[in-house]
Write a structure and sequence with these properties.
The chain is α/β, with parallel strands linked by helices. It has 2 domains: 166 residues, 3-Layer(aba) Sandwich (Rossmann fold), CATH 3.40.50; 176 residues, Dihydrodipicolinate Reductase, domain 2 (2-Layer Sandwich). The chain is 26% helix and 22% strand. The protein has 12 helices and 14 strands. A 6-stranded parallel beta sheet has the order 3-2-1-4-5-6, with helices on both faces. Helix 1 crosses helix 12. The longest helix has 17 residues. It starts with a strand and ends in a 9-residue tail after the last helix. The mean pLDDT is 97.
């Protein structure tokens, strides 16, 4: 790319916003020109606004420390400085939806980490390797919004990105019933161990709203584009349980599945190891060298050992075996703040550049 796109991060002081900063520090296609957050943080250098809330394992990059934080609701001002935004701001759902639509109507594309627009029929919810073709509905969305270049694309919930990719590789065998139990890191709540003392020596068997998202969102990922809208799939039937566990990063899932066309174990391994995902999602700056990786060791994947596979953008799978109630069961793992949050957002933006939907305002 000859000219880097100028990008703003709305919600730059939160955990996902911080992860965006690290991923974009030396990005070959994107340059951060705006850091924005709440009114309380606005008007301060980023280092002062963040104070003791920096949660990453490496220091704040020098290039961001003295950048002045903007008020994320000052859309007219911010839209003059950016080609698009990543939105990870913490507002209620109605306010988030309104803010993202306002940016889009100001002709600023929005790559959202939030859930507010995930169920809008003409808003793609992307895992580029799996459903990149859903971006076709952006043209219909622009007509609805009355825009020429402004639109919204969302990233799915972090928990489903451990088990939806391997299940997507098995769709030829027609999964009918799925049980997924997810064991989710505390960073999924935007907290560190210091901020979440109740998790130490403990498991919390409830995460508000998580099971509903985990059961509903895969159907949009697996849906089809019809008449400018995404029509959700009707199957397979999915039920989930979501637990918060005392690990810093990484969501692990125990998955049980029945198939209409029951495969052999060897056929499942072949499908996982040679999944032909969307070729347009390969060779992007944030693409993992290998999307799905089956691990033969009987005690893998492990959250601490394997969450950073593929720089945190790959999915690891293991322990595939026959089950006494379901046809098969296995475990799988994804990094929730990389593949599941900021990294997935950056990859989606790269995919939109590669497919011609995201470009500099000057073009």
């Amino acid at each position: 790319m000859k000219q880097k796109l100028q990008v703003g991060i709305i919600g730059a002081t939160g955990m996902v916003g911080q992860r965006f900063l690290l991923l974009l520090e030396n990005h070959p296609w994107f340059e951060v020109t705006v850091l924005a957050a709440s009114k309380q943080s606005a008007g301060k250098p980023y280092e002062d606004a963040i104070k003791d809330r920096w949660k990453m394992s490496v220091p704040i990059p020098e290039k961001y420390k003295q950048m002045m934080v903007e008020d994320g609701e000052q859309i007219d001002l911010i839209s003059q400085k950016v080609d698009f935004i990543f939105c990870a701001i913490s507002l209620d759902k109605a306010a988030t939806k309104a803010l993202e639509e306002a940016y889009a109507k100001a002709e600023i594309p929005v790559i959202s980490n939030n859930s507010a627009n995930r169920y809008v029929e003409d808003v793609p919810m992307l895992i580029p390797e799996i459903n990149g073709h859903h971006i076709a509905v952006i043209d219909s969305q622009k007509k609805r919004l009355g825009t020429k270049r402004g639109f919204i694309v969302v990233k799915p919930n972090c928990s489903i990105q451990s088990y939806v990719p391997p299940l997507s590789a098995l769709m030829a065998f027609e999964p009918e019933t799925i049980l997924a139990c997810t064991y989710q890191a505390i960073s999924g709540s935007g907290k560190s161990f210091k901020e979440c003392p109740e998790i130490l020596d403990n498991v919390i068997p409830f995460i508000p709203g998580e099971e509903e998202k985990s059961e509903q969102e895969p159907h949009k990922i697996w849906g089809s584009v019809q008449n400018g809208k995404i029509v959700n799939s009707n199957s397979p039937l999915i039920t989930t349980q979501c637990l918060r566990v005392p690990v810093s990063d990484g969501h692990l899932a125990a998955v049980y599945v029945n198939f209409k066309k029951k495969p052999t174990k060897e056929e499942i391994l072949e499908a996982l190891n040679h999944y032909e995902f969307n070729p347009l999602a390969k060779n992007l700056p944030s693409s993992p060298e290998k999307f799905l990786c089956y691990m033969e060791e009987e005690n893998r994947p492990q959250t601490k050992l394997d969450r950073n596979f593929g720089k945190g953008m790959g999915i690891t799978i293991g322990r595939l075996r026959a089950d006494t109630v379901f046809d098969y069961k296995f475990v799988c793992l994804s990094h929730n703040t990389l593949r599941g949050a900021a990294g997935g957002g950056v990859l989606s933006a790269e995919y939109l550049v590669a497919t011609g939907y995201l470009f500099a305002k000057s073009l």
